[in-house]
Amino acid sequence: MNIDIIGAGIGGLTTAIALEQKGIKTRIFEQAERIKPVGAGIILANNAMQVYEKLGLRKIIEENGNPICSMNITKSNLKPLSKIDLSYFEQKHNVKNIAIHRGALQQILIDKLKSTQINLNHKLTSITKNSNGYYLKFENDAQVQSSAVLGADGLNSIVRKNIFPNNSIRNANQICWRGITEYDLPIKYKNELNEAWGKSDRFGFVQIAENRVYWYALKSFKKNKNEFSINDLELYFNGYNSIVKNIIKSTKKEQINAAEISDLKPTNTWFKENVCLIGDAAHATTPNMGQGACQAIEDAFVLSECLDKYEIIKAFTEYQKLRLPKAHQVVKASWLVGKMAHLKNPILIGLRNQMLRLTPSSANRKQNEQIFQLAEI
Q1: DSSP state at residue 288
Q2: Would strands 66-68 and 169-182 be described as parallel, antiparallel, or unpaired?
Q3: Taking a C-beta distance cutoff of 8 angstroms, is the pair 143, 137 a contact?
Q4: Domain chopping of the chain, boundaries
Q5: Which CATH architecture has domain 2-169+263-372?
Q6: Which residues pair with 213 in a beta bridge?
Q7: Which of 33, 166, 241, 371 is paired with 326 by a 20 to 30 Å CA distance?
Q8: What is the helix (H) or strand (E) element at residue 262, kind and residue range?
Q9: Per residue in 22-61, is it b (16+ CB within 10 Å) or e — as a string?
Q10: pLDDT tens digits, residue range 249-295?
Q11: Neighbours of 341 (CB within 10 A)
């Protein structure tokens, strides 16, 4: 079996590695002219690290990242509201939660590939079914015959638009800035993810390597993201703890990326005949639970197991059955968390904060228990 993967992001690369290890030949087609490190970090939660353990990548990822022992929600002054202790899950699944530079992870995955060819500067424009499978046409005029296609091409997936044109993207009316900076965090924060919630905004930060901090900042907007300027970031978060202000101040403006926050309205069908969606192309989520890439990594594991065990249509059917309920659970929960984090009314903010403080740790553990548990195939 030969499988063509559209997209060389975290999901596409992980899928190629998993399929290679099952003896299934793959090709990757990526629209970018070159793969360059994006200035952002990523948190590989316990579920993702369980997959990378199975693929033989846990050790090198740990060596290139920073272990995270807790995830905290705080007030804007960094006073804790909620804490999830991750040590329980570390002991249960024998893997750590790792914060790492997205570019470093991408390079680790590329280096792990043995036979898969990555075709750069191949932006897909159309998929046409024919007697031999599928005819793929690219913007650079390249044309490829394919027997099976995996769409790993993100929120604005061309594969999805070709096979399921009626799906819709939801805008959360929030802008997100992401940056990486050289900054020496106080020791108490070095192995934590902290996300501070304010009034219609929030700020998260985590160490990804020695003296390197990845951070993200979000604000709600009314009409469009142009209401805010990257040059006024320090002003927007002036009411936050001095650590937050110092992190922003230490970051070079050209290393800050801005984007609107969106997700894909949940859809119940991820494949049609020999074309199947994975990762954000199937179930793009807002980043509020840190599970976007992790869910794509789970897709890679489950799909490769199914393709190893079943013929292709049965494999896609089982993959969708195993993965869709959990992926949708994450999408829906993440959307709600994003709305809750950006409350504007002071009374509602007070009630929210009280609720977070009073939620027992057992309830937080139960929710993460479900997220961190891999499917059995």
Answers
A1: G
A2: unpaired
A3: yes
A4: 2-169+263-372
A5: 3-Layer(bba) Sandwich (3.50)
A6: 181, 207
A7: 166
A8: strand 256-264
A9: eebebbbbbbeeebeeebbbbbbbbbbbbbbeebebbeeb
A10: 999 998 899 999 999 999 999 999 999 999 999 999 999 999 999 99
A11: 20
